[in-house]
Amino acid sequence: MATPTPLPSETAATARAPRASPPVWAVLLAACAGQFLVVLDVSVVNVALPSMRTDLGLGGTGLQWVVNAYALTFAGFLLLGGRAADLFGRKRVFLAGLGLFTAASLAGGLAQEPWQLIAARSLQGIGAAVLSPATLTILTTTFPTGAARTRAIGTWTAVGAGGGAAGGLVGGVLTEYLSWRWVLLVNVPVGIVVLVAAAVWLTEGRSGVVRRLDVPGAVLVTAGVAALAYGIVQTEPHGWTAAASLGPLLAGLVLLAVFVAVEARTREPLMPLRLFRIRAVSAANAVMVVCGGGMFAMWYLMSLYLQNVLHFSPVKAGLAFLPHSLSIVVGSKLAPRLMARVDGKLLAIAGGSLAVVGYAWQSRMGADGTYVGTVLGPAVIMSLGSGLMMTPLAASATSGAAPSEAGLVSGLVNTSRQIGGALGLTVLATVAAERTAARGGAGPEALAAGYGHAFVVATGIIAAAVVLMAVLLPRTPAATRGSS
């Protein structure tokens, strides 16, 4: 019996049959793997810094820029990356960001000159800024609203926290048993595997709203903050009134002023200035900039103290950071429960005050310090306080915005924290270098004095953030706190 010839309409329908949806576990795995790499590379290089300095002949300024190059470009292009996913498609942007991140990791791992490493870290930051927003957007568009999406986002958040916690230990193990280069090269095989998996399993999707990319805004804010950071670094050898310092500082201020002017006139701005008319948004972002300025440098300074003064091996230094990471996670997990009973503003102030105590205690570090007597106690207190503080600050930043703008406002908070952190690292590293030089050079006593003085300044910065919280942050209405 002859097989019936399919009707033209049946053939067309078969050709148009949609591709089977990918397994949700594969989507979750790809998104979480991308986020893990982004967060890991914020902290993984800290333990490797002394080895980088020895191998490539990096000076103190070069070490700052190994960290800051990533932080600055990540912050400057983060919002642009989120917009790109809407315009060009989440899968396409995810693959592009991961590809750039992986290629930059290879370039950094093979760097033979300091400028090559710093340039690679800059490109890594751009790749991370493109990749990170796409990972969360992929999850929210794959999992329906409800328990499934909540579990997926919870897993994504936990993986991000795990990346930050694992950075010091992973960096220490790779540096001690292989080479500092492997803190970057390890991203290459992992990135390739995730690229292949994402290309196979992810489906394309984009927003129905067509937006233009505000590339000039991203370039201006990144260049402005970088110029300010460079000017601050120049104050250490030249002083604040020298042309070598004032030139970059003034250029940075001009670039940031132009950025504000561009944002006020752009149809689709990178940072919508109208959002800052909302008190909760403007206050929380101002506090985040200051908090980032005091807190971001903790990992950098402690890594140098542990290895240069206490003579910890890279692995031992990585293990020494576990109490910091675990305390931040504990504080972040406790904060939502406490916010059900306590006003978020009061909790943020309490967490910030606890962090001030920890930073002040850590500033007493000396050349004859020990891990248990000098590091462990302050680590737990300042990190627990930071975790308790950041969650209510983030909640405050989004509480006054429309639900449709919650993602954008969250991105602003992250950007503010990263920019504040980059500038703060520059200030505190310069302060440490000045005090070390004043104490007679690079011996353990002089280095400990420099790092301790930087923590004194950081204590003052975080104390200023606590004052800003008390003055600027609005209280949380009792009806919105919920119960546990």
UniProtKB/TrEMBL annotation:
Subcellular location, principal: membrane
Entry keywords, A to Z: Antibiotic resistance, Cell membrane, Membrane, Transmembrane, Transmembrane helix, Transport
Chain ranges passing through the membrane: 24-49, 61-81, 93-111, 123-141, 153-174, 180-203, 215-233, 239-262, 283-302, 346-363, 375-398, 450-473
CDD domains in the cross-refs: MFS_MMR_MDR_like
Pfam families linked to this entry: MFS_1
This protein's record includes keyword Magnesium: no
Membrane-topology annotation of the record: Multi-pass membrane protein
Gene3D superfamilies linked to this entry: MFS general substrate transporter like domains, Multidrug resistance protein D
Entry-linked InterPro entries: EmrB-like, MFS, MFS_dom, MFS_trans_sf, Sugar_transporter_CS
Protein's cellular compartments: Cell membrane
Domain Major facilitator superfamily (MFS) profile: 27-477
UniProt protein name: MFS transporter
UniProt lineage: Bacteria, Bacillati, Actinomycetota, Actinomycetes, Kitasatosporales
